[in-house]
Amino acid sequence: MVDRANLPPLAAIRVFEEAARCKNFTLAADKLGMTQAAVSYQIKILEERVGAPLFIREARGVSLSDIGGAFAEKATEALNILSDAFAEAKGISQQTLAISVIPTFATNFLAQKLGGFQMENPNIAVRVEVSESLVDFSASGFDVAVRGGQGNWRGLASHLLIPTRFTPMLSPDLADTIGGIHRPEDLLRLHILSPADPWWNRWIAAAGLEGTDLTGEVRQHFGPQVLEASAAIAGQGVAMLTPAFFQDELTSGRLIQPFGLTCEDGSGYWLVFPESHRHSQKIRTFRKWLDIETQDWRS
């Protein structure tokens, strides 16, 4: 059984955790509304209780010692758990769910369906920010994020929403300029958008076009799929896209998917959040809703 009588003061742990993230006592003091001397004193209390240095003092700041690094990770987790528990005790944990989400998922899924979530959960207000970067949950105030990748982000729980599948898509007008797309090699007669995208090499190989070299294509990179899809709809070229995100465009005929062949690269779109927030009720509610909304995409 843990002897809680030996725990250091919570104030000292809070100061240490902020200093560990800032790697600078002065900056930590500013964020905490304390003096640098007060921060140094709280760190000294902890180091005396631990019996070892938690920081390595350097000319331009501080860095964590091995012991300090391990302690900082656990301290952040513990403070997050305590914060969630306190919020729920005050009855405010259901007020706002802050979501950071990549552009294509935001535009072609979340914006179209989020109203349904809020109708089902009127006690949860939602704040959404679109970003390509993985947020720092401890500093940004976000509860969850939707990201693309392998799902192996350190310190984060990753919940797979849909696997990444991709295939060429283009406007019907562009296809008509060469009499239609009948064979995979017909695509190579047209301009390829983002030819350096590794998805192209994977799909070309699966289509039996080994040896095809796209290095002669004009170097373009659109970033988010939603931008590349807009270029394709405008007839600028052939895009490699995830069909699940563009069902409306396919149904309306603004885009066509000439072949049923889709490929995967082992990546996917994930709901991610700190491990320490796994039991947050608002996150569990949002995750359950996303599972239902994306179940057809996983088949």
From TrEMBL:
<feature type="domain" description="HTH lysR-type">
    <location>
        <begin position="8"/>
        <end position="65"/>
    </location>
</feature>
<dbReference type="InterPro" id="IPR000847">
    <property type="entry name" value="LysR_HTH_N"/>
</dbReference>
<keyword id="KW-0804">Transcription</keyword>
<dbReference type="InterPro" id="IPR005119">
    <property type="entry name" value="LysR_subst-bd"/>
</dbReference>
<dbReference type="GO" id="GO:0003700">
    <property type="term" value="F:DNA-binding transcription factor activity"/>
</dbReference>
<dbReference type="GO" id="GO:0006351">
    <property type="term" value="P:DNA-templated transcription"/>
</dbReference>
<comment type="similarity">
    <text>Belongs to the LysR transcriptional regulatory family.</text>
</comment>
<keyword id="KW-0238">DNA-binding</keyword>
<dbReference type="GO" id="GO:0043565">
    <property type="term" value="F:sequence-specific DNA binding"/>
</dbReference>
<protein>
    <submittedName>
        <fullName>LysR family transcriptional regulator, glycine cleavage system transcriptional activator</fullName>
    </submittedName>
</protein>
<dbReference type="InterPro" id="IPR058163">
    <property type="entry name" value="LysR-type_TF_proteobact-type"/>
</dbReference>
<dbReference type="InterPro" id="IPR036388">
    <property type="entry name" value="WH-like_DNA-bd_sf"/>
</dbReference>
<dbReference type="Pfam" id="PF03466">
    <property type="entry name" value="LysR_substrate"/>
</dbReference>
<dbReference type="Pfam" id="PF00126">
    <property type="entry name" value="HTH_1"/>
</dbReference>
<dbReference type="InterPro" id="IPR036390">
    <property type="entry name" value="WH_DNA-bd_sf"/>
</dbReference>
<keyword id="KW-0805">Transcription regulation</keyword>
